Amino acid sequence: MKLYDCSTAPSPRRVRIFLAEKGISVPTIQVDLRNGEQFGETFRAINPDGTVPVLVLDDGARIADIVGICRYFEETQPMPPLMGIDAADKAVVESWQRWCERECFYAVMDAFRNSTPGLKGRALPGPDPYEQIPALAERSRTRITRFLERLNERLAANQFVAGERFTIADITALVSIDFAGWAKVKPAENLGHLKRWHQAVSARPSAKA
Fold this sequence. Notes:
Layout: E1 2-5, H1 10-22, E2 28-30, H2 41-44, E3 54-56, E4 62-63, H3 66-76, H4 87-113, H5 134-155, H6 168-180, H7 192-202
Helix pairs in contact: 1-3, 1-6, 4-5, 4-6, 5-7
């Protein structure tokens, strides 16, 4: 088993934090995204989409999706539970995880990739070239700001994103908010509940993974 990773990229960081919370160690292979290694024939033979992370299992099966990789480890090592305990809890955790991913992680990706000069012609991850849309970057920054406000409201009554226990939803939110700094969007100082939560989850040893 091995994990294709990039230590500076936000997507594989979500998996690394998940693994650290589980206490799982997986051999990693670093992919140099900055210099385009993901588009070379060697890596494209592993993942035609040219993205990381990719988990290669012992039998050669490949999982090239963040949540799919986390699901594999949740099923093989259930404790501590990061994706819910019973049917209702799993549904709640998944709904909040999807919300954080949809409203912040993807919005940050759009804001960053559509405004960074070095990503001209690479506005979406993957093998196909897409031109940047500056207006989409601006709209995405507005979406991120609104997400931060709504998450602050959510955390006023909850210790963590999905309730009273740290879950994959917190991992997605943490990485998304840290990633937002790349798009020049930071939480406002008046979002006290968000600040309390961010300090707490950032202090967990897994956040440094």
